[in-house]
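PT: before anyone asks, these are the final sequences, not the draft ones from last week. 357 residues across everything. Please model them as a single complex and drop the result in this thread when it's through.
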Amino acid sequence: MTGVRVGLVCSRVRVEEKLLLAALADRPGVEVVRVDDDQLQAVLAGPGDGPAGEDALRACDVVLLRSLSHSRQVALAHLLQAWGVPSLNRAAVLETCGDKVRTTLALALAGVPTPPARVAFTVESALEAVEALGYPCVVKPTTGSWGRLVSRLTDRDGAEAVLEHKAVLGGPQDRIFYLQAHVDKPGRDLRAFVIADRTVAVIARRSAHWVTNTARGAVAEAVAVTPELDALCRRAAAAVGGGALAVDLLEGPDGLLVNEVNATMEFRNSVGPTGVDIPGLLVAQALALVEARRCV
Amino acid sequence: MTADPVTAAACPECQAAVALAPDTLDGEIVPCGECLAELEVVTAVPPTLALAPDVEEDWGE
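LR: through. Structure below.
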């Protein structure tokens, strides 16, 4: 494909963004427009020419959204949608995946197996939800990543302490208590990368700690993409709206459960073990979006 | 923009010279070898560093 302008919006150039820039540089005929979201401003209403960052993004054929902040990602995706510029991922998908309440609802509505979970809005009702789920259970921020502030509640005393601290010391979002049954997993969880309705790679994240996140030191190893895994991950991706997604799975005693779906995937620890060119596939998916529009 | 082959900038925390690799890009995070502060490359050319911001609540995947 020739004459394609691909935007890359990011806050910091991490390993992932460097790999994406390298993958874009490998594509002949692709012009890369990098926009720093710290510098960006856009006209929402009223007079005024488009500021530089807005003009640059409006002129793109597709934009890869790589902001660190979920809130910025959503705002940017809505801007691009309003300007008629496709983005990876779409605003609705980012909103669903960036909020664990919405993610769990989407998975449950689609019949995708996921751990039992409840939401409550006061310490008292959250404690009732915890008791209903049973100990141990897990309380998570509705928005957040990298295992931050995820807490395992093992008894009533601990639950009262954690929930009260969240209610008193946190903000309004901390008083949306997302509670999930704890799944006794075998020292690892699975992460699948679904791009364009295809499970392209799966890793296991192994850790002695119950939080198995590579950002917290878990070690990644490749796992074969079985037909069962592929089918489940594709269903999970479709449930949240599709796109380029990282599906986190738990191997429970009764089978696989989809824990979360991430819409701004990190893949630095997954390319090596799997040998799959994930950044190249993300770029290919972005270009496919452009091609699909040009064919209309 | 990419850094020149041999460039260095002062760490804003401890003033140690922090060398930037030739392929350093604006917006990258580099550590200071002396005080271990995380630094953001504001501009690779000319080499300018700032303390990287702390992780915020909604950062992530």
